[in-house]
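Progress narrative, Year 2. Work on Ion transport domain-containing protein from Linnemannia schmuckeri advanced from sequence curation to structure prediction during this period.
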Amino acid sequence: MELSQWRADMTRPEHTTHVARRWYMRPTEDNPFETIGHNIPQEPSLVESGTLWGSALTFEGIEIGWYWIVVCVSLKNLDYSKVFTMNFDVQRKSAGQDEWLMTDNSCETTLRTEELGAIYDYVRLRIHRQLYIDDIDDSCRLGINLANTDDNDNAGSIEVHYIELGASAFDSPSGVKDHVIYGDGVPDYFISVGADEPSRTKAVTISACEISDTKNHAATLHFTPGEGHINLWDLRTPDNYVAGNKKSRPITRPIGRVSFRVSPFLTAPEVLKEYMAMIAISSTGSQIVVGSERETAHGIPFQVFQMPPSKELLDKANIYPPATLTRVPSICPDLASYYGVGVFHRIDPTNTDEKDERFIIYNGITLEVYDTESWCRIYRLELGYQRGEEFTLCITQSLRGRYFCWNGFKGVISIWDIETGRIASNIYVEEDRAATYAVLSPDESKVAISVKGTVQVFDTVTGIKMGSYFEGLDRDNIFGIIFEQDHFLTTNRSLSNTNDVFMPNMRSVVRVRDMVVVEDYYVHEEFRGSVANFLSLGNILYPPSEEYSCGITNDCLMLDRPFDIFYVDSVRTFVNSEDIAFTAYSSQKYVAGEVTHTLQVGIGASYEEMTNTMTLILGKSLEHRIFWVRETSQLFVVNEGFLFTWSLSNVFTNVATLDRVVKFLDHDPDHAKHQCITDILNVKMCEHACQYTIEIKPTYWIVNNGFSTIRPPAGTPNNILTFPKSAADTFHTTQDYRNDMGILGLIQLYRFGDSDFKDEIIRFLKNRIRPSRENPLSCLVTLCRAWNADDRLALEQIVTELLPPKYITWIPDPHEDKSTEPLAILLEIAQTRPRVFGVAKAVMKYLVSHANRSKNLAFLSPLFGSMHEVMELYPEEALECMGRIAFIPVKNRAYIIDNHTLALPPRPRLRFWEPRTKPLIKTNEPIMQFNFTGEKADSSNDGFTRPVFMASFDALWYYKDQQQAELKKDGFEAASNTATTTWWKTLYHMFRLKCHIKLPAVVECYDFNLEFFDNPAIAALVAYKWNTIGYSYWLFRFLFQCVFYGLVVTAALMQVYYPHPSQLVGLFIVIIVVACIFLWLELLQAVHSWSRYSGSTYNGLDVVAFGLPLVASAIQLHSIFKGDTLISEGDIKGHTRFISASVLAVFMHMLFELRIHKQVCKYVMIIQQMVIEIRGFFIIFAGGLLAFTIATQHLLRACPVDDCKRDPTDFPEHFFYALSATYFFMGGRYDPVSPLFDKEDLGFHLMMIVYFFFTVIVMLNVLIALINVAFTKGDDGWRLAWIESRLRYIESAENMSHHIPGFRQTHDWFPKQIYFSATPQQVRDYQEKYHPGGENMSGGDGEDDGDEVDPIFDNVPRPKEEEEQQQSEEEQTEEQTGEDDAAEPAEGEGANGDSEQGETEAEEEGEGEANAEGEDEGQKDQEQTTATTTDETATKDSKDKAIEHNSSLDLRTQVSELQRQLTLQQEQSQKQFDELKELLLRATTTKSKK
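Result:
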């Protein structure tokens, strides 16, 4: 081009803009590709492909600030098809420096040619990353590099006409816009502040920027001398929706703006650089709040601005000028002086009503909620006593819906409910020196926590760790996490240029299910200079599903795939896209007397060259259809209605990994034992193996060992199988059914596989043990539902492998329905088939083990949900499980000690109106309830050194139905709007509820026997409830009973001492009324549960104590109304004696009611035990008395003839009185027969000798011995009976609390779990008593928390010594499998006699399994065991080599091991020191008391 022509082109309107500086390129003498910028127009500089071109530019005379860099180029000589990337880099050099460097004020942009579109003429390329000039002596060098797609190709060249610095306006006077180049990390929303001002050369500096939660509007704040400027932006403008050019146009025109005066001191560059402004925008963009995050003398005061009501917030056509925002004149005075962070927030994101939106402010200490109409405070939450930016940042990142996270206590992330103002859940993590941050998922079901240089994901309700991720993370824990349900976005500093703040940061999209990075993504800074970047997270956090979409294009090309039919001894070789050859060889083997076909797969071009082989089990079918996908290196096997997808690779440990298995044929019971043949006609599959269509002939079956076939009728159409399932699919099975049945098919194959194959099956199932979007139901549920006697050994092995006691795999859902809860499913099967207990026991062992290891009671939710059935079917196992969870230590002891409320036992106090308080260290056996105080820790609690344990109320009772079970949620439930109540309202509702004949019970205690109450956890639970609601309920009932006792005693005394007993009519009527009330309460108990009511001796005494006075009072009323003249003296005595008996009855009843007190219960228990022990003695003794009475009567009065006369005697002739006289002979009262001792009556004397020997010598001594035995038993078990007696009142009070409106909202007495303490000696004593030789229950703070997630779900690598230890344990387990499996049939028949007997009875009655089901079961189990042992022996050599390979540890691992051992020794020493300290404290206390 001629220079004159080029200069004429420079005068065109599109090349005339307001700029700070324009440079034209002049080549240097030394290098033609190095130029120097001049202000005199020059010939365009040529940049050829494959060369490095650069131009040095000076900043002399340019004002300090942010600037755009614009490069005017011509692309007409560039071949787009041969250019891969175009790189622009800006390097800096200060005065005195010799080299160009990439500094903090540098930037680099690498763009691909498709970003330019189809531009072949002049174009102004505006680099998206602005440049900051802070020194006029600086200079920069702009370099351009064109990278070819092929080194041998010449892609042409570009012409650089000039370089500009400045030009805030994107439009030239002719209307031509600059083309913005982004490079990596293209934002979805790009705002350029000040671009609507054509005369502006220097870019403004954004001080704060915020986007609305609807992602429709944004607000920016920047300053000029003496003024602050707010701009409101509509992100829905048409520029973002230009077809084919969506992400290359900025938003340059705001829809609203306002300016306000600020202190000139604030806008000084050195002050403004450190100033932190706060800005917030409402969801609709109608209101904007500005303020200062820190309290400064010249900061912005808190101000609220709003859009004019008549202004349209969506101005797509840009026909309106920007509206002027108006200031809200009246706000809460506390807000006017507020400094901190604030945000508009919708507690219910689905609610679009702007009136329900709230404004939340928080400074790390408090959180306040304000109404956005009146701007008045609604309520305030006290969070802590320490102010810090790390606390504010945690709330900012985690605020979601009703909940937010707070990190104010080391090692704890507390999740708060904004509506209730309470902590909904606590997540315990490792303590870290750096601050810990948390982010909630959109549905608040998960929380991602950054701690110790890792991202750990937890379940918010249970607090169970789901997995960890660590790649590319630092120890500062500031990872910029963005959580979107199934994935989260985090920084990846290993791939980011940390030396360049303008270089887009590398972010990794991590899948929560297995902590695998599914995509790496570059993102720009949120705002820098005058540019604000916003990213639509849905575009990157929801990548196309690996299961159901190709991930490349929506319309992927379907290709025909050849397939092979494999018979025995068939060999095929497959080559993938990387030219790696794999060989498959088909064979058959005999296992347990059955023929199964296998496919041996290995690396190599032939069968002889195969290495790293793996044997795949195919099943019993004689032939199989196999097709290969070269692009994805996947092998598809069709067999007996199943479709298996195997990935072959030379990278993994096993050459083949199972990706998917489905069964597309529906279950046909008529052909369950026949071999199914599915002939394939055609296979079409995309190159990514994510979509396929298979045409299959009608299925037929082979019967009689291959001698005959059953074929469908002629003319049956072919079937079509598609994935994902579409309308063209002709099979009637659903996709979920296919997945579930495919998993069940693996059980059969597992029986015949070797150890490598079994490991692969377990790996495949572990990937599906947690529900996900692709697998809504855990595979554990599918396996439990499919239990049968034939596969029980294989299923037990699979479940045991899936649920290891050391690593977390399955995470139980505390709110799971019983129809999808594995343990509940197994126990339902156990009702008729008790042998399922082997699998159920494996599940229970996993739950109990991880509850202890991870110190998390959430693992026990399935066990507690089915504890009623476990106690009914397997009471011994229930007692064992309860014992194992008696001492579960808390995870963060200091957190509980610093935030608790003591449940003190009731004591009489003179100042009863004052709250009861007592220091923790002075409380004997303290029981604590978590209660966050937010205050500084009480230093007096430092002297309390006992371990702290926790217990759940789910261990005490169960909820009667699923609806009532929702009441037990501890957070994450709907907020209750029920008002609080008062004591007199409570009494009114209690009386009203007692009038219902059958009040529905919400909770019901388990059928505990006394041995369960020796469990310290259950004792602590009962004690807490008694101290809070149980005692009050009993006391109110007992006081009412005392009124009844007083009435009965008063009636008895007045009949003795009152001169006019006939005037006691009113008293007897009151006794009858009160007795009827108590009998009504007894009727309610009987109706509620007759079995429990009739089984208690106390209830019988209740009926007597209330019924006898009622009858006696009725008789007295009858006597009074009948008149004295008609009543004889004997009748009067007979009528009043019922009152006498009533006095004794109420006394005994009062004594038994007081059994809730320790001392009284001890004696009541002894008396009760005596009665129980001597029941048999009473029968024998009564028989002896009866015999002696009859014998004495006969001896003294019997006559052989009619007119016989016997000597007169004082011995009573009436039989009852004679029996009484005989009884009192034992007491020495022989008056009726005293004269006979002086007579020579040999028969009488012999009778008295025998009587004396029988009663006084024999029976009384036997009675004394029995009473001694009863005393011993009663003295040993009275404490358990005392706890049980309290539990009955607690159960009634707990049910009553659910029916009294507002009671549970008024009183904080209903936590989900409580905390108690015990000395280490008490823990050891309990363990030695019930679990000798078991695992340690002490659970000190220094012990392993056990939050180790299975490596398949974890990204954090394990130390080599752990892998070696685990591998050694697995080898030992495999060696013992043969012995254990061989003994299994005998154990099933003899180890659990009750279960076997129950199953036998069920079979005899026709309610269990068919008789033929178990005839050959023992033989099959033994054959399976033999086969398993053979396979494991065959692979033992390879495992030995693997162990030798991993046995050597590097130096770092050895150092880590030494550090771990040293830490354990220090913790053990600290524990011993704490015990010694406690002993010294006790000795000091005892000495001071003396």
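The chain has a mean pLDDT of 79. The chain has 33 helices and 61 strands.
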